[in-house]
Amino acid sequence: MNAQPIQAIAIGASAGAVQALLRILPALPADFPLPVLIVVHVPPDRSNALVALFQSKCPLPVREAEDKEPIAAGTIYFAPSDYHLLVEADRSLALSWDEPVNHSRPAIDVLLQSAADAYGPALAGIVLTGANHDGAAGLAAVADAGGFAIAQEPAEAQVATMPAAALAACPSASAMTLDDMIFYLLTLATT
């Protein structure tokens, strides 16, 4: 655990994402002080229904990220369909239509790497269930920047490939169950 207080959470998920996030996000109380930035692999031709789904279930405000938007505390941001979500050095959001990474746009690696650059040791990065290797390099970047790297316990994940790849790429990462993650995140709210 790093000594610097965490100032932001970045989460990536793919296959099985909705079920995993439905466990985590509604557990965050209305006074949770940190922004939560999320990339879920959504097909580009499909509108992103995640915001509406989670708005009805979460005490925190849930929104789709907008380009050049300053990151607000206590807000959950989802990457829009077919755009990479990045964190700028001034800790605002940026959207990019650059090439897909790991066959994905938005890509988890893009979010985690840019957030690690912006927040350094003040970032907690989380890789959840999924069927490819997106997020592995990003989680390693979080750890390299001094942040706290977490991957879902592969045995618990609906699809273990992505968290297993993240743990392989980032041996210092903590493997946690969803319940462990919720407990960890709630401790951040009180520090």
From TrEMBL:
The keyword Hydrolase applies. Residues 5-191 form the CheB-type methylesterase domain. GO terms for molecular function: phosphorelay response regulator activity; protein-glutamate methylesterase activity. Its EC number is 3.1.1.61. It is an enzyme of class 3 (hydrolase). Signal peptide: none annotated. It catalyses: [protein]-L-glutamate 5-O-methyl ester + H2O = L-glutamyl-[protein] + methanol + H(+). Keywords: Chemotaxis, Hydrolase. PROSITE patterns: CHEB. GO terms for cellular component: cytoplasm. GO terms for biological process: chemotaxis. The active site is at S14, H41, D134. It comes from the Bacteria. InterPro entries: CheB_C (IPR035909), Sig_transdc_resp-reg_Me-estase (IPR000673). This is protein-glutamate methylesterase. It comes from Sphingobium cupriresistens LL01.
